[in-house]
Design goal:
The structure holds two protein chains of two kinds.
Chain A: H1 6-11, H2 18-24, H3 27-41, H4 51-65, H5 68-79, H6 85-98, H7 126-148, H8 155-163, H9 168-196
Chain B: E1 22-26, H1 38-43, H2 53-58, H3 62-77, H4 85-99, H5 102-116, H6 119-128, H7 136-149, H8 157-165, H9 170-192, E2 194-198
Helix pairs in contact in B: 4-5, 4-7, 4-9, 5-6, 7-8, 7-9
């Protein structure tokens, strides 16, 4: 593959670094993580989820994780889709409004209820809805739940997406995109931390 | 056609973490086995997965399903080098326990038990949670997994130092990072596209 490896890029690993060489020992993991990125962000069959929607959601997810390099990477991807300036401004504002600390959420009522953790239930601010549009407005509310409190997920949350025009297949794509980023951001952040922690000789 | 979610009002979802085999009920319609296209069959990777409503639902977007599945399998099954399978499964089970995915935790707690032969420790992880004392090496892996699951990510140099002190080399720490990071992907799909159910007797 001639494209740069995205996880190496996000982790700040050069191809000849010790950790990149450790990653080379598992070429399938490396290739398939890259193929996952490609399937979501450079899809051969994009279906009805647009490139701008994919990048907007990724920018929101990366922003909520507060990993600067990764947030910058996905924000640059969104810029390449030439969103209207009010859209970008509303999205940036929503990232700040959406910041929280996860995982939180409730378990089905029972013995685990003592482990329920309270946290904010987010929705897009009224003032930003027109600029973001109804599909992205509904998506961001769902995505925030997926990022911070996935154990609160419910069929009702999916119904809101359907009502906003996301099809069953669109929802699978959206869910994969957010869930993949939850992996990719952690893999990259973990590698970055490991690289920065000097090995004991 | 307007699509709607599939409710399961009669389902008694499990209310505690368990080693028992569970079922899973989708909130969105998966293709039936007969409806699966050739591309969707290929995306399942294992032919037997056409019996699973979870994988058939994900097959609505076959390109990301296939890459996801191949990433998953290599992170967990490629044990030619790096961390023993038991400890990769421990990272998966601990991540699932912390995020609150009862279904995922049951599967990977069973795998962790099978590969480690430490059923009591695995059961303590499920019953007590991620603060259970499982011995320092396992405690270090669980603590790293928990820190990676946080949003924003809380994994830092202290976690790396503790893993190294517990005897893990950098290749093994990369396997901990990948195993734990991957379950932040898996947990979010499992939790948000359907619900667990007690398996039929």
């Amino acid at each position: 593959m001639t494209n740069p490896d995205i996880i190496d890029t996000l982790a700040g690993l050069s191809p000849d670094s010790p950790l990149a060489m450790i990653r080379d020992r598992k070429p399938v993991t490396r290739q398939q993580a890259q193929a996952s990125y490609g399937a979501l962000f450079e899809p051969a069959h994009p279906g009805s989820v647009t490139a701008q929607e994919r990048s907007a959601v990724a920018t929101f997810v990366a922003g909520l994780h507060a990993q600067d390099e990764i947030a910058t990477f996905y924000a640059a991807g969104l810029s390449r889709t030439s969103p209207p300036p009010p859209f970008s401004a509303a999205l940036s504002a929503e990232i700040l409004l959406g910041r929280a600390n996860g995982p939180y959420g409730a378990y089905p009522k029972g013995p685990l209820s003592t482990e329920d953790v309270a946290g904010p239930i987010y929705d897009v601010a009224e003032a930003h809805r027109a600029a973001l549009g109804s599909r992205i407005t509904a998506a961001l509310a769902h995505v925030h739940m997926l990022v911070f409190h996935p154990r609160d997920a419910s069929a009702a949350s999916l119904q809101r997406l359907l009502d906003a025009g996301w099809s069953n297949t669109d929802i699978v794509t959206l869910s994969q995109l957010v869930a993949f980023l939850a992996f990719q951001i952690r893999a990259a952040a973990g590698l970055r931390t490991l690289a920065a922690t000097r090995s004991v000789p | 056609m307007t699509e709607t979610v599939i409710p399961h009002p009669g389902n008694h979802a499990p209310t505690a973490f368990t080693l028992a085999q569970l079922d899973w009920l989708p909130w969105l319609a998966p293709p039936t086995e007969a409806e699966l296209t050739e591309r969707q069959h290929v995306s399942l990777v294992d032919a037997a997965r056409s019996k699973s409503p979870y994988f058939r639902l994900l097959a609505r977007d076959p390109d990301i399903l296939e890459a996801r599945t191949r990433t998953d399998k290599d992170i967990f099954y490629n044990t030619g080098s790096g961390l023993p399978r038991a400890e990769r499964e421990l990272a998966a089970a601990a991540t699932s326990r912390h995020n609150g995915c009862i279904y995922c935790a049951s599967v990977h707690a069973r795998h962790a038990t099978t590969y480690s032969k430490r059923p009591d420790d695995v059961r303590r992880l499920l019953d007590t949670g991620v603060s259970a004392d499982l011995g320092e090496r396992w405690n270090a892996i669980v603590a790293a997994s928990v820190a990676l699951a946080a949003t924003p990510i809380a994994f830092g140099t202290a976690h790396v130092t503790r893993l190294r002190a517990a005897g893990l080399d950098d290749a093994e720490i990369v396997d901990v990072i990948n195993g734990a990071a991957f379950f932040n992907w898996a947990n979010r799909l499992m939790l948000s596209l359907g619900e667990p159910a007690q398996a039929a007797p």
